[in-house]
Structures are given as structure tokens and as C-alpha cells.
Amino acid sequence: MLDEATRQQSFPSLSEMTYLNTAAEGIPPLEVGEALQTYFRDHQLGMDGRELHTAQREAVKALTAQLYGLSADEIGICSCSSEAYNLAAMALQLQAGDEVVINDLDFPAGATPWLQPTSPAAVKVWRNRDGALHIDDLIPLLSPKTRLVQVSLVSFFNGFKVALQPMIETVRKYSDALVSVDVTQALGRIPLDMTDVDLIISSTHKWILALHGGCLIGVPDSRADDWTVPAGGWFNLQDPFGPQQYEQAHSLKGAASFSVGMPNYPAIYGIRAALDYLLGVGVDAIADVTSDLVQACYDGIRDLPIELLTPNDPDSWAGIIAFRHPKAEQIHQHLLDNDIHIMAHAGRLRVAIHGYNTMADIEHFLEHLHDALNQVG
Fold first, then answer.
1. Within-domain flag for 26
2. Euclidean distance between CA atoms 93 and 3, whole angstroms
3. What pLDDT is recorded for position 128?
4. pTM passes above 0.85
5. Per the domain annotation, does 80 fall within a domain?
6. Contacts for 293 with CB less than 8 Å, ≥ 6 apart
7. Cα-flanking dihedrals φ and ψ of residue 178, to 5°?
8. CB 254 within 8 A of CB 236
9. Whole-angstrom Cα distance, residue 258 to residue 266?
10. Which residues, at least 6 apart from 300, have a Cβ–Cβ distance to it below 8 Å?
11. Which of 48, 70, 143, 144 is deepest in the core (most CB within 10 A)?
């Protein structure tokens, strides 16, 4: 991934394009495709394949635990971050008078369960200033009524990385709230320190370079009672086929309660291969190599006639740089015409830089961004 030979071996499609859109979709290495073939061979064994499927699931839990700083027993797997947050809302069982703090840089999956008319809690919004979430602005939102503070470690919107440990210390000082953190835009891209986080959630089709249909849940044992999902199912239950199966149902504790039904084993095989691949490369190595690329990209953009959305603070960067322009769609089309892939939405353009990117990618992007800006005037 970090040199030309291995890049071509695992990511041959990148030879045909400049791909800077991992924050939307990661490009999986060929090893993930091979894992899908392994799943199919195992599934052809019928019920005898279940043991092999289970081994893959346990491997994913162990690998995720390494990245989250937890044990394998503190990891659960469901289908996507939206499902995870809706299950988390069930577990929290909010009451009238409770308060939840969300923020305006978060992805909808983490914010909207608490905004539904059926949610009885009052929602407070931690609003950004100049693209950053400031701890001083969080303090007035916290009280003894605060049950949850939800944040993304890295914002999908502009790439801002929250100062997580100072934030957690502030939450603990001014409330008894739980802290849930979405690491979808960070996992596999930057090293994580999830110390004292109560719920960790990540999708699997972005920076870890795996597949759709997966979400990796982390719940420390100390918070298992807080995050036990009272959902129907079977895979999440203590004794789903026991003598009282039609009289009562009791969920497994913590992370295990987020897996309510048959696991999505094809995705799990792919996730296992992707995590093996990333851990073989090393997340620290990815972060080190790409830091120069992010800096070069930011330096090449900041003086252009665009509106930067990413704060000018390298300590708050991960892999995303975002900006606005009134003619964003025309700029985006010019880039696509030159095989450069970034994200465009509602006037916002977003660049996402991963370990399979090179300085040549950044230079190619900047060259054609200049051309596009000159053309649109």
C-alpha cells in the first residue's frame, strides 16, 4: 500500500485514476475479493461451513479489539452505523427530562435517532465555530440531566478531528453523561486512543477498505449494562431456544446485544481480510506517510479562490480536506473528466487522502483544480 509495487499488486484499479474519495468509499485491496471467494467456498459446505464462518467473526472481533484498545469480548458486529445508533437509542431508554448533546459536524446516523418525535429527550446542539468544535462551547450544554454526548472523532463534513480526551474530561467534570464516538472517518487511517469512551461505532466500507453491510461496535465491560439493547432477535439473546423461549427474552450484555440476528458473513470475511491487510501495513505507518500529503494538499488549496471548510490546524487533521465554491459541480465535472475522483455535494467539495495515495495524486489534483478554477472564473 505504501510503495508502488505493493500498491499495484493490491489496488490495480488505482493505476487508472486519481482516487481521493475514501471518505465516501474505500477501494478494497484484492485480498478482500479473495476473502469473498473463501466465504463462498465455505458456504458451499452448508451447515458445516458455520464453524468456519464463526472463526472469521471471532477473528474480526479480535482485530477490532486491537484497534479500539478493548478485548474481543467487548466487540460486537451489526450491519451499519445507522442500525448501531438506533439500537443504542433502544439501549439508552431515554425519558422525559433527559438531555442529549449532538453537534453540527456529525453524520446524520449519529444525530437523528435523538431527533425523532418518539424520542422524549431534549436535544442540545454543540455548534462549530469556524469549522471546529470548541470545548468551551460544550460546557454550557452539560448538566446533571445530560445522558449522552455523541460525536464523530473525525467529521465527515470537513475533516475536523475533535480533541477527544479533553472533551471526555469535560463531560465527566460537568455531567454523568455517556460518551459515544463514531470513528468511521478515522478507523484504519489514524491511530486511535479510545480511553474512557463508552460506545465506539464504525462503518466498514470507508477507511478500513472493507465492504458494505458491516459495523464494528465497542462497549467496555464497565459500560455493558448501559449499552444492552432490549431488542428481539436470537443471536443477541441469552437463551433464545430454551424452555422459556416464548415466555421471556433477555439480551446478552453490552456489545454482544448489538448483533440481533444472523451475522452478515460475506461482509465479515471481507472485513477480516481488510483488517489483516491494514494491520500488516500499520496504521501508524499510514498516518506518517500521509501526513505530508495532507499538508501539501492543504498548502496547495488555501490561497485559491475557494472557501476552506477545514480549519487551519494540523493537530485537528486526519485525512479529509473540504472546501466550497459556487461552481462546485462544474469543478467536480472537470476533475472527473481528468480521472480525478473527489466528493461533491451541495457546493461542498471534499478530498480524502489514504495510504494508497501518492504525492503524484496530490499534484495531479492541484494542477487540475487550478485549471478548473480558471475555467469557471
1. no
2. 49
3. 98
4. yes
5. yes
6. 353, 357, 358, 359, 361, 362
7. -80, 150
8. no
9. 18
10. 362, 366, 369
11. 70
Mean pLDDT value of segment 47-75:
98
Task: Based on the fold, state whether residues 372 and 265 are members of the same structural domain.
Answer: no
Domain edge (last residue) among 264, 279, 294 = 279
* 27: in domain: no
Q: Which three cell numbers stand for residue 170?
A: 469535560
Task: Please write the tens of the pLDDT for every residue from 67-92.
Answer: 999 999 999 999 999 999 999 999 99
Query: For residues 201 and 249, what is the distance between their CA atoms, to the nearest angstrom?
Result: 25
Q: Residue 118: which domain range? A: 32-279
Q: Is residue 108 part of a domain?
A: yes
Q: Give 324's Cβ-side CA count (13 Å radius).
A: 8
| pLDDT of 20 higher than 90 | yes
Same-domain pairing of 273 and 299: no
Same domain flag for 143 and 268 = yes
Place of cell 428481539: 232
Q: How far apart are CA 297 and CA 220, in angstroms?
A: 37
Place of cell 500521509: 290
